[in-house]
Model the fold of this input.
Amino acid sequence: MRLTVFGATGGVGREVVRQALEAGHEVTAVVRDPARLRIPAHERLRVAVVRDLTDGDALLPVLTGRDAVVSALGPANNKQARLAPVTGPALRSIVAAMDRAGVSRLSAVSAAPLAPDTRGDGALARLVLYPILRRALRDLYADLAVMEAEIAASGTRWTVVRPPRLLNRPRTGSYRRALDANVPGGKVIPRADVADALLTTLTDPTTPGHALGVAT
Done:
């Protein structure tokens, strides 16, 4: 596939680029600072600098001719999300530019606390952990909620991947998945496995139009 990856310099985004290249895909990595990508030059890797992800005209060249889009965008922290939300405004422009470019398939990373609470989450997560996280990181999750709403309202064939706490560990490929719910008891997952999920959902016919919970 010919993929465009947003958020390519983040922990999940770099893994998406690496794994996509390993799988034989052609990748356009969209970045603000190419030095932060830290991935060796590759014949199937194009690095495109786009400093304003809300500029639809700047987005169009990196989307034209692509088969699918992966978004690993996310607020760096709660303060950034409060002062200048990034993910919601960016995805609003990205899905609009995708429509102009004729690209329909999209997978995007979100976060487990955005999923509705279920008994499968366990009492500790439902009554203690998630309420604390949602309060402490309310601006970050508000930005991600806007992103999910923009994606769901778009004409794309979308999948949102919702991981719990992220770890810097190698890909296992053996993580659990739950459609439109969090993984019961799932507390952590390697960033590399989130990248794997973002890529594998692109060809999974069961995931378009759904959120996918992932965890080890």
About this structure: The beta strands are 2-6, 26-31, 45-49, 68-71, 105-109, 157-162, 165-167, 176-179, 188-190, 210-215. Residues 138-153 form the longest helix (16 residues).
